[in-house]
Amino acid sequence: MANRKEFTYTDGAAIYLLAILADLGLQLAVSIVFGIAGSQYLKIDWVNIIVSSLLQAAFILCIVLYCRTKSTFPEIGIKKTHSANYALSAAVAVVALICFYCVAVAFDLLLGATGYESSVGFEFTSVPAKILGVFATCIAAPIGEELIFRGALLSGLKKRFKAPVSVLLSGLAFSLMHMNPEQTVYQFLLGCALAYIALETGSVIPAMIGHATSNLIAVLMELIAPFGNAVNSALEFLVATPWLFALLTVLLFAAGAVALFFMGKFMGRLGGKRQERKFDTLPPDESEKTADEETSILKKPMFGAKTLLITGFVICAVLWVAMLVVGYMDLEI
């Protein structure tokens, strides 16, 4: 602990790229295995649950191994915050879903109007599959993804960029990673909201709770037919009245942005500054030496960090475009 190094922009970018490469490696391995065993197995619900859980495990492994090797840890980590912030995190997810959902639907309608075929989600038919599905979606995914995008990546970004830019880049990385064009807008907005509360509180736990809440609501819409049908009926009514849908979309988006801004500031006042990470103090001579070294060293890795970050973004963007093309060509993968 005494030799722990400060987490840098390069560290955040490196962990992000490692996570993306782990994602690609896992997808390649799955393609090879099921290419041999038979692609029909990929249509089995529990198989997809296992693959999804393995991806989150890979994300966690990336950040753990890197931090152990480099003797560092993200400043936005798994740290306690004010107890009220945990409930407020769930409220942030609800506000984001209510206020940003119409924007997401509008983007999906735009894609559909231009010939894009939305992907079909997996249906969990058996009770065990539903239980495992809830675990993978509402527990494993929020932990693994938030450690990468709101923990490592955001901690690195805030060392190089101002808070608004860091939030936007974190949200963009999060949305592109999912490679799901029709959900990109909502995932971007949710990612920005989660990054904002993570910055304000200095902890990744509120982002995990918000992410879990958002996913849980989506799962409940699938599992509880009356709930999902009610939401879909309301949307169909609004879409059938374009002017009302457009007006409501703009008003809800504006209201949501304002509400989330003040909710984040309130959460920061409750527990953000108090939970700000303090690094171990080094002896005077070592501290001065480290500061001098950091001044010279950071000039050199800065290009490396930028390269790592851009590489991760380019990989995800290319795959996102590939999925978009697949949707327009109505291909099954």
Distance between the termini: 47 Å
For the report, how would you describe the main beta sheet? none
Strand content: under 5%
Oligomer: single chain
The helix count comes to: 11
Q: Encode the helix/strand succession as letters.
A: HHHHHHHHHHH
Provide the structure class: mainly alpha
User: What is the number of E strands?
Assistant: 0
Radius of gyration: 21 Å
Low-confidence stretches: 274-302
The residue-averaged pLDDT reads 86
Q: What is the 3D form?
A: globular
Helix content: over 70%
Structure notes:
With 333 residues, the chain is mainly α. Helices cover 79% and strands 0% of the residues. It is built from eleven helices and no strands. The radius of gyration is 21 Å and the shape is globular. Mean pLDDT is 86; it is low at 274-302.
Secondary-structure map:
Blueprint: H1 9-37, H2 45-70, H3 83-113, H4 127-160, H5 163-178, H6 184-201, H7 205-223, H8 225-239, H9 242-271, H10 284-299, H11 301-329
Helix pairs in contact: 1-2, 1-4, 1-11, 2-4, 3-6, 3-7, 3-9, 4-5, 4-6, 4-7, 5-6, 5-11, 6-7, 6-9, 7-8
Structure described in brief:
37% of the residues are buried.
Descriptive labels:
333 residues, mainly alpha, globular
